[in-house]
Design brief:
Blueprint: E1 15-16, E2 25-30, E3 33-40, E4 43-48, E5 62-64, E6 67-69, E7 76-78, E8 84-86, E9 95-101, E10 104-111, E11 126-129, H1 133-144, E12 151-154, H2 170-173, E13 194-196, E14 201-205, E15 210-213, E16 216-219, E17 222-225, E18 229-231, E19 244-245, H3 250-261, E20 265-269, H4 273-284, E21 288-293, H5 300-303, H6 305-317, E22 321-324, E23 328-331, E24 335-338, E25 343-345, E26 348-351, E27 355-357, H7 360-364, E28 377-378, E29 390-392, E30 397-401, E31 405-407, H8 412-426, E32 438-443, E33 446-452, E34 459-465, E35 470-477, E36 480-487, H9 490-502
Parallel strand pairs: 11-12, 11-17, 12-13, 17-29, 19-26, 20-21, 20-26, 21-22, 28-30
Antiparallel strand pairs: 1-10, 2-3, 3-4, 5-6, 6-7, 7-8, 9-10, 14-15, 15-16, 18-27, 23-24, 24-25, 30-31, 32-33, 33-36, 34-35, 35-36
Helix pairs in contact: 1-8
C-alpha cells in the first residue's frame, strides 16, 4: 500500500455517497487493504485497488462498462467478479462487500469471488503448442473455467512459462530475481493442465487429429499453435561467436547476465525496443554501452522522429553512445567493424535486429500462410486457421483487424489476449477478436505505451511536449485515428483504447 494511504478515504469508517457518484471510482482503504469502490448504473462495487500484474494503481485507471482498466499496462478486471478479463494481468482482484446507508458508503469486509459462469460448451481435448505468452494465457483461461484436465501445453523451452518481458527489463537489469518471472503462481498447472517442457512437436496430422512428439502421438479436438517467433542472427562474419548473444528466452537472459558480470563494454546491434531495453539493463549493470543501427533515429518507424529522439535522449542522458546510420560488417571477438571502417570495442554483443515467426509446423501441415509482406499463418476473425479445429495466436497469427485490415503483431500483452480469446472461442464465450493491439516499453524512468496499429501514418497530432516526457501522439491514416503513443499520460491511452473499441476514436 502506498505511503500516503493513511490520508486516503477509510471505507471502514465510511465516505460520503457524493464521493462515489454514478460513473466514478474512488481509491481508499479497508484496514490494511487498498480498496477501489466504484458505482455504475447505481450499483456499488468494491475490489482490490492494485493491479495483479505489476501493482498499477487502479483508481487512476478507467472504468469502461463493468470493467476497471489499469493505467500502467491496460489490464482489465471485472468489477463484479474481480476476474482478470484481459492480460497482462492473469490473477484476479480481491472482492469486498459494500453497502450504502445514511448518505455514506461503507466497505464491510471481504467476500467470496463468484465462480466463473458455466460455459456453453466444452472445448474438448486441447493441445497448445508453445508455452509463451499466448499459449500460457490460453491454458490459464481454460483452467479458470474448469477445463484444466483437458489441456496439454507442449513447450520447447526448458523453463516453465515465464513473463518474457522481464528478460529485457526487470530480470536483465537486476531489479528482479529469476523466480519473479514465473507466470504460474502455483495455479494453472497444479489445477491439472499438463505441461511438457523441453519437448518439441515434430509434425501435425490434421486428418488424424494428432501432433507428433518424441514421446509419441498426442490426440486433440482443438489445436492451438502458439509457436512464437525466433530472434534473427544476421549472417555477418563473427556473429556466430560465443560472445554474440540473442535475447528472447530466460536462458538467453541468464547468459547475458553472466557475461555482464565479467565485462566492461557491450555493443547492442539494433536500436529496436528489445535492443534499447537491453541497453538500459546493461547501464543498470554499470557497463559501457554502444548502440549501433542503420536508421538515423531509433524507433522512428513506429513512434515517429520526435518520440524516437525522446527515447534516444533518455539513453544518452544515462551514458549510452549511439552509432546511428551505420552497419556492422564483422566482429573479431573483441571489436566490431562498421561500414565506414571505424571500430567499436566490445566484450560481448547483443543482437536486437528483429524476429521472424516460427512457421515450420504450420507450413509443413499445409495451413494457409499470409502474404510475404505480412508473414505468419492466415487466420479468420476467430483466430482459426484454414483447418477448422486449428487456431494460431500471438506472433504467428495474421488476423483481420477490424480497423486496419490483416495485420500480424509481435507484442507480449497482445499475444496473451489472443490466447485468452481462443480459449473463450473454444468454450463458446466469444466470436470475433476485435481488441486493439497494445504494448509498452520502459527506459530508465521513462517509458512509452502504444495503442492501435498504424502502418504508415499520413498525419500525427501531438498533445503535450514530447521532450518533457509527458505527451500523447495520435497517428492518423486516411483521416482516421489509427494509434496513439503516450508517456506520462496513461489515462489518455486508456481513453483512446476505449474509443477505438467503441469505434468512435476521433
Amino acid at each position: 500500500m502506498a505511503e500516503s494511504s493513511d490520508k486516503m478515504p477509510d471505507f471502514k469508517a465510511g465516505v460520503s455517497s457524493d464521493d462515489v457518484a454514478d460513473g466514478m471510482m474512488l481509491g481508499g482503504t479497508f484496514g490494511e487493504d487498498g480498496v477501489l469502490v466504484a458505482r455504475r448504473g447505481g450499483r456499488l462495487f468494491a475490489v482490490s485497488s492494485e493491479c495483479t500484474h505489476l501493482g498499477g494503481p487502479l483508481p487512476e485507471g478507467l472504468m469502461v462498462s463493468g470493467e476497471v482498466r489499469c493505467p500502467w499496462h491496460q489490464a482489465r478486471f471485472s468489477l463484479e467478479t474481480g476476474e482478470a478479463i484481459a492480460a497482462p494481468a492473469l490473477q484476479p482482484l480481491g472482492c469486498y462487500a459494500v453497502e450504502e446507508r445514511d448518505g455514506k458508503v461503507f466497505v464491510t469486509g471481504k467476500r467470496e469471488r463468484p465462480a466463473p459462469a458455466k460455459t456453453p460448451k466444452s472445448p474438448g481435448r486441447v493441445v497448445i503448442v508453445g508455452g509463451g505468452a499466448a499459449g500460457h494465457a490460453c491454458a490459464d483461461m481454460l483452467a479458470r473455467h474448469g477445463f484444466a484436465n483437458q489441456v496439454t501445453v507442449i513447450s520447447e523451452d526448458a523453463d516453465a512459462p515465464y513473463d518474457r518481458t522481464f528478460c529485457s527489463k526487470q530480470y536483465l537489469s537486476g531489479e528482479s530475481e529469476r523466480g519473479e518471472t514465473d507466470l504460474d503462481h502455483n495455479v494453472v498447472y497444479k489445477a491439472g493442465v499438463t505441461l511438457n517442457t523441453g519437448m518439441r512437436v515434430t509434425a501435425i496430422d490434421l486428418d488424424g487429429g494428432t501432433v507428433a512428439t518424441a514421446d509419441g502421438a498426442l490426440p486433440f479436438d482443438a489445436l492451438v499453435l502458439a509457436t512464437g517467433a525466433a530472434p534473427i542472427r544476421p549472417e555477418i562474419p563473427g556473429f556466430d561467436k560465443a560472445n554474440v548473444h540473442l535475447l528472447r528466452t530466460l536462458k538467453d537472459a541468464d547468459a547475458l547476465i553472466a557475461s555482464a558480470v565479467k565485462a566492461k563494454r557491450v555493443a547492442i546491434v539494433g536500436a529496436s525496443f528489445i535492443g534499447l531495453e537491453a541497453a538500459a539493463a546493461m547501464i543498470a549493470r554499470k557497463l559501457e554501452v554502444t548502440v549501433i543501427a542503420p536508421e538515423p533515429v531509433p524507433l522512428a518507424r513506429i513512434l515517429g522522429e520526435e518520440a524516437g529522439r525522446y527515447v534516444q535522449g533518455l539513453h544518452i542522458d544515462k551514458g549510452v553512445a549511439f552509432r546511428l546510420g551505420r552497419k556492422v560488417e564483422g566482429f573479431d571477438g573483441d571489436a566490431l567493424t562498421l561500414d565506414d571502417g571505424s571500430t567499436v570495442e566490445a566484450d560481448f554483443v547483443v543482437l536486437g535486429v528483429g524476429v521472424k515467426p516460427r512457421l515450420e509446423l504450420a507450413e509443413a501441415a499445409g495451413l494457409k500462410l499470409a502474404d510475404e509482406k505480412t508473414g505468419g499463418v492466415q487466420v479468420d476473425a476467430r483466430l482459426r486457421t484454414s483447418a477448422p479445429d486449428v487456431y494460431a495466436v500471438g506472433d504467428i497469427a495474421a488476423y483481420p483487424d477490424p480497423r486496419t485490415g490483416v495485420i500480424r503483431v509481435e507484442h507480449w500483452a497482445h499475444a496473451e489476449r489472443q490466447g485468452q480469446h481462443v480459449a473463450r472461442v473454444l468454450m463458446g464465450l466469444a466470436d470475433a477478436y476485435e481488441t486493439a493491439p497494445f504494448f509498452w516499453t520502459n527506459h530508465y524512468d521513462g517509458g512509452v505505451g502504444y495503442i492501435g496499429h498504424a502502418r504508415k501514418p499520413d498525419e500525427t497530432k501531438v498533445d503535450g511536449k514530447v521532450a518533457s516526457g509527458a505527451f500523447a501522439i495520435e497517428y492518423y491514416e486516411d483521416g482516421k485515428p489509427a494509434a496513439m503513443a503516450t508517456s506520462g499520460r496513461d489515462i489518455d491511452g486508456l481513453r483512446f483504447d476505449a474509443a477505438l473499441e467503441a469505434g468512435v476514436a476521433e
